[in-house]
Every structure is written in C-alpha cells, then in structure tokens.
Amino acid sequence: MVSEVAPAVGGPRVPQQARARATRRVLLAAAGEHFAVHGFHGTPLSELLEHGPATKGAFYFHFASKQALAEALVAAMTQSWDQVLPAVRGAAGDALEALVLLTDAVIVRLDDPIVRGAGRVLRDRVVASPTLAEVSGWWRDQAEGLLLEARDAGLLRTEADPAWVAGEVVAGLAGRATVHDSPGSGEPLWDLMNTFWAGLLPLIAAPGWVEQWAARPWQQRARPVGVGPHDVDRLEIHAIGALPDADAADRAAPGRRR
C-alpha cells in the first residue's frame, strides 16, 4: 500500500512514492543538462550537489555516487524507449509509416535532457554497457524489423535491402543531428529529416505506396509526445492522417476564417 505524506495546509495529498519518482526524474534531468554541456568528467559532483534542484540528502537517497547517477541516466533512456515502439506500431497504418514515426520519436527524444545526458555518458565511455554502438544497433535492428515487415507486405521495391536501408536511416539521422548541433546551423532537425524522407522513400518504396504517401499530409504530421524519459507518462504517438478535404484544408489554413 502506498503511504502518503501530509502536504502544506490546504494543499493536495501527494503519494510518497509518486513524489519520490518525480524528485528522481528532476534530478536526472538536471544532471543530464550538466553532462550534455560539460561532459561527465567535466561536471564535478559538488556542482550537482550545490546547484541541483534538490537537497544533498535527496540526491544521496536516490544515487550513491556520480557513477550511479550516470548509470541511472542510461537506464532511464533505455527503459523509456521500450515503450515507444509498441506505441508507434499501434498508431501507424503500415510498417513504412511506422519507420517514419519511429524516427520522429528519436528526433524528439534528442531534446529530452535525460537522453542528452545519457548520450554524453555513452560518448564519454563512463558505463561498460551498453555502448553507444550497441544503442545505435538496437535502433537499427528495430528499423530493419519494420522494413522486413514492409517487404513482406509488398511495400518495398524488390531491390531495396532492408538491412542496408535501416543503416542508411540511422546514419542519415546521426549525420543530420551532428550538422544541426554545429554552430551556425539554422534548419531544424525535423525539417532536415523531412528532406531526407522526401528523397529516400521514393527510392525504396513500391510506386503504389509512394503515390498514396504523397497524397497524405505527411510533412504536416504532429510531433510525438512523451517519448523521452523526462515526460514518458504522457506518451502519445500520432498517426499520419489522410489528405484533408477542401473545406477542412481551407479551415486549417493560417489566417483564414469563415
């Protein structure tokens, strides 16, 4: 049974375990921001303790050391991802749409402070496992699995090799993310990947699928919500809708009123 702690007078009662989870998540997010900017080795524990969002006692209640904190960041990143693929499969109409939605989730996750911090921990080789190559391999394997489903459903061109395409999707996003993070880059990563999809999908997908895809408002698709460990309680993947009718398109156009 979950115990409760008494709040301030007049305030709501907050379950103690829920409050502890929230505190842990806030600590992870704050540490993730520090690690992402300064690196694991460039962030002294004293900085996290003195300028963190919780007390020193709260920190040590959740994490025995800075190393344990780093391991918790990586664990939070991998555990939250396990919830994303089933949500993508539930929203997508077919495996190729699922591939796009899955990549969308990766893009949005890169803005999550826990994911950014965990990524820096992996690049700094702080934890023995998983490695950055292993994490990239997991995503590549999931992308290949969707492409194999697409091939079996007749959605791919016969010359499109699922393993090769999966590797290109992972490399394409990784390269564009690097460009996006470089000084002076003004184009959002989301737009960079839309350009990538506009070029890649006609090369790998069956002509009939491409024709239907082009008639859908895929470049105006909604971003996923709650795909990162900081806000995974709000996980929501949006399917790409059909082409809106003329009246709906007119109502949705900016600056137009009836």
UniProtKB/TrEMBL annotation:
<keyword id="KW-0805">Transcription regulation</keyword>
<dbReference type="InterPro" id="IPR009057">
    <property type="entry name" value="Homeodomain-like_sf"/>
</dbReference>
<feature type="domain" description="HTH tetR-type">
    <location>
        <begin position="21"/>
        <end position="81"/>
    </location>
</feature>
<keyword id="KW-0804">Transcription</keyword>
<dbReference type="InterPro" id="IPR036271">
    <property type="entry name" value="Tet_transcr_reg_TetR-rel_C_sf"/>
</dbReference>
<dbReference type="Pfam" id="PF00440">
    <property type="entry name" value="TetR_N"/>
</dbReference>
<dbReference type="GO" id="GO:0003677">
    <property type="term" value="F:DNA binding"/>
</dbReference>
<keyword id="KW-0238">DNA-binding</keyword>
<dbReference type="InterPro" id="IPR001647">
    <property type="entry name" value="HTH_TetR"/>
</dbReference>
<feature type="DNA-binding region" description="H-T-H motif">
    <location>
        <begin position="44"/>
        <end position="63"/>
    </location>
</feature>
<protein>
    <submittedName>
        <fullName>TetR family transcriptional regulator</fullName>
    </submittedName>
</protein>
